[in-house]
Write a structure and sequence with these properties.
It contains twelve helices and eight strands. The protein is an alpha+beta fold and 355 residues long. Helix 1 runs antiparallel to helix 2, helix 2 packs antiparallel against helix 3 and helix 9 runs antiparallel to helix 11. The longest helix is centred in the middle third of the chain and has 46 residues. The relative contact order is 0.06. The chain binds adenosine-3',5'-cyclic-monophosphate (CMP).
Length: 355
């Protein structure tokens, strides 16, 4: 069953609807909004809620029609988005009634691939993140302890106990520095400087771990996707596993819409293309169409001459491109494939008269 048209509209408008709903909730907390404006905002909230009722119905219909993977979370979010504001409307009176619509914060997260990616990165890097968090905790305690010892007699109201000094330690270690608690003694100021520098180091470590985690996860996803695409090109089925891994890393996927120009005659060529799906049209004097499993753009790569013909997408086409430097790698790891490409280039060169 295909998606209902309404669902298509609503999917793209999901984040906008949530933003409108949440801004309305925020506006309703302003005390000096007049009665009429308040009513208009409340009607707006009801409209957003009604849209979410439709989305819930649609999700349930889709769920019945086919087993949608991960639909459990989506259904839970859709049910909560409808149920919580309804319960608040029926049972809660007063200014807090609309606050329950803040549950719509969950809506943009629904089905978001980014949050799935974040979840995987956090799970994978959990050990390192916990390690750095432990260092943060240790430094925090040591800083509060030292500040307590150094400043307790000078400022007993602010540093008179370790829990009191802890607030100073948190704001200093996070380099927020509200300035409500400032060490007065020389030793206290030296300590503050050290704590600030440790804070910068700890946050840099957190940022580094997360950045590396994201980079590796995105690379892994690219690898898996490329692997599936490479499996669709018969030429690569001859490769051994080592060479296959190298080529999967080297190839870059690209989708060109029907009619799009992929390379132009006369241009310098630094990459060749393998067709995973779709067809391309080669504008030789007798135009040629190439389909999935074929390759093109190899002539410029091998001869170093400009592109011999313009190649455009006859249908939407999914390609894998290979740069000249990676072609050298392919030549050494898999000479038989490089030989097929070279032979084809020579044959095509013979068949394509120079103009
Ligand atoms: P290149 O010259 O790099 O760029 C244009 C490409 O079109 C060329 O490489 C070949 O891959 C392809 N091509 C050129 N002539 C023919 C032909 N006669 N048959 C099939 N493909 C061709």
């Amino acid at each position: 069953m295909s998606a209902l048209p309404f669902s298509k509209i609503l999917t793209s408008l999901n984040a906008v609807l949530a933003a409108v709903g949440l801004l309305t909730v925020a506006a309703l907390t302003t005390p000096d909004i007049s009665g009429e404006t308040r009513l208009a905002l409340q009607i707006l909230l009801i409209c957003v809620w009604a849209a979410y009722v439709f989305q819930l119905i649609e999700t349930l219909v889709m769920q019945q029609a086919k087993d949608v993977r991960g639909a459990g979370v989506e259904i839970a979010v859709d049910v909560l988005a409808v149920l919580i504001p309804l319960v608040a409307f029926l049972f809660i009176r007063g200014r807090d009634q609309s606050l329950y619509c803040a549950i719509w914060l969950l809506k943009p997260l629904r089905g978001s691939t980014f949050f799935r990616l974040l979840g995987r990165v956090l799970t994978k890097e959990a050990r390192n993140l916990i390690g750095v968090t432990s260092i943060f905790g240790i430094v925090l305690f040591v800083a509060a302890l030292a500040a307590y010892i150094i400043e307790r007699d000078v400022q007993p109201d602010k540093f008179g106990s370790i829990p009191l000094a802890m607030w100073w330690a948190v704001t200093t270690l996070s380099t927020t520095g509200y300035g409500d608690e400032i060490p007065q003694s020389f030793a206290g100021r030296i300590l503050a400087g050290l704590v600030m520098m440790s804070g910068i180091g700890i946050f840099a470590l957190w940022a580094g771990i997360l950045a590396t985690g994201f980079y590796e996860e995105v690379r892994r996803q690219d690898f898996v996707r490329n692997w599936q695409l490479v499996a669709g090109v018969p030429l690569f089925q001859k490769l051994g596993s080592g060479a296959l891994i190298e080529i999967v890393r080297a190839l870059r996927p690209r989708v060109v819409p029907a009619g799009g120009i992929i390379c132009r005659k006369g241009e310098a060529g630094d990459q060749m293309y393998f067709i995973v799906e779709g067809r391309v049209s080669v504008a030789t004097p007798n135009p040629v169409e190439l389909g999935s499993g074929s390759f093109f753009g190899e002539m410029a790569l091998i001869t170093g001459e400009p592109r011999s013909a313009t190649v455009s997408a006859a249908t939407e086409v999914s390609l894998l491109s290979l740069y000249a430097s990676d072609f050298q790698m392919l030549s050494s790891s898999s000479p038989e494939i490089a030989e097929i490409i070279r032979k084809t280039a020579l044959e095509r060169r013979g068949a394509t008269p120079k103009s």
